[in-house]
Amino acid sequence: MPTAALTVWEDFEVPAHARGGQVTLNLHDHLAAYAPKRPGAYLRISSDRFGLEAGVDRQFEDAEDTRVRLRWGPFTKVYRENDTSAFKKRKVVKPDGAIDWIVLRPEFRQLLADLANGVIDGVIFYDLDRLVRQPRDLEDLIDIVEYVKRPVTGATGGRMNLINDSDRHMARMMCVMALKSSEDTARRVARQHLSAAQNGLAQGRIAYGWVRKGERKGQLVPGEADVVVRIFQDFMSGESAYSLAKSFNAEGIQPPAARTWSSTMVAKMLRNPRYAGMVSYSGKHRVQAVTAGDGWSLVLFGDEGRPLLGSWEPIVTPKLWSQVQFEWQRRRQRAGIKAGESGTAPVNKYFLSGILRCSKCHRGLVGHRYRRKSGKIVHNYVCPSSERGGCGGIAISAPTADAAVEEAMNAFLHKQLQASKIGLDQSADTIKTLGMRLDQELARKSELIHRWSEGHLHIADLTEEDYFTMLSALNRKISTLRESIASLEGSPQSKVEPEELLDNWTAGSLLQRRAILKRYLHSITVQPPLSSTAFDRSELAKARLSPHWKTAAEIAA
152-154 and 123-125: which strand pairing? Predict the structure, then answer.
């Protein structure tokens, strides 16, 4: 009988990877005894403001000592997360549109992936509170450990090893206690921040425009302050965050803590109440979350309903800051973004987008590019489809329309330049009349500001929004009167001189050219295509364009 059994297995060979497939009732001790050949080390410290990495270096020394003591192989990978929190969650939007709040730790997630895929076959971490602070993260790691059956052990704290079920349960309880400790600390810190904000102290990093480090920390930097003022003033004159960033990069202006200026950076500065001397607070004690794209939701108000003022020197006035916020919301609403919604207003990429109007439905035409089968790229202005509020019935070649409008504006601005030279010799009576009107508008402005500063707007049955609307209108009138007087007296005014307008038109940016068009034009209606009775298609395109010019009074207003 034994001879027959040997005959059965004569030509039978067991593969090397299948050998040793035995079972044991003492599984966890058996797995814990495994000595990884390709271990990884996880090191993390929550705060390292100066980037010295001294904390994670010390952790690596202890992890290396533990690796040598356990007789594991050399570290294949070291996962370092310096100045990284394991507690704070962030809102993320997944590719399918789902929203989640998770702790963003790229190196920790890479460790999980490498352990699951066999890149590493074990992990040494410094201590459990350095490894995880959120139960979700711990459970993700435990799931992988139970699947790959490879040790994950600590360098301190009793040499905890997650390969053992008893250590896993202990780790769960310790993680919950660590989470409670983090939440207690977060609550105390948040209360301190609220108290400091209510006392007018700046919270967080010092913004661009003030000294950010050293003994002069918090004092104004004149050059940076001038840039901030320019951002607010140019935005009110029609520039966008994108165009401002592009201009600063072209001029070589050094941005705050970045290589180049970006529209996001400029937008944040425009919404920051600290530039107007008002306290900004977005901590956990706010009843309502800070609204995306709304600077007012950052302002901390006192018991009397007024913005709290900080102890630092402001760069712009509260009035200018408030005007910028109203202008910002107006642009967002025109772009279809409702109040309280995230998103930014789209940037106009095409010269005549929105300025050209459909003759059938009066909807603004939009720029559209597409590639023909031949590979040629075609650029048209088209009326949007009915789903987007248009009729889709009008289209015109963009290069032809652009050229026609440029030609017309060139002729118009040259006429303006000639008329301005003829009109330099104005009578003193006209200047005197304009001066009297200017004094009246200045008196009205002074009275309005006095009512606002004394809190007496309600006496005139005015709201805060009415105040800023009226103030903006008065500023425009005052500016127009001053420009008119200066023009008559022979003083150059850069914003209204025809030479400057002509220069901006011929060599200015897309936004500058669009602003000049909107200064003199309501819109340009595009008529349906004409029958092709002539060879010159450009002349046919010109005949389709019907400009609607503003009157002199509308331009002055």
Answer: parallel
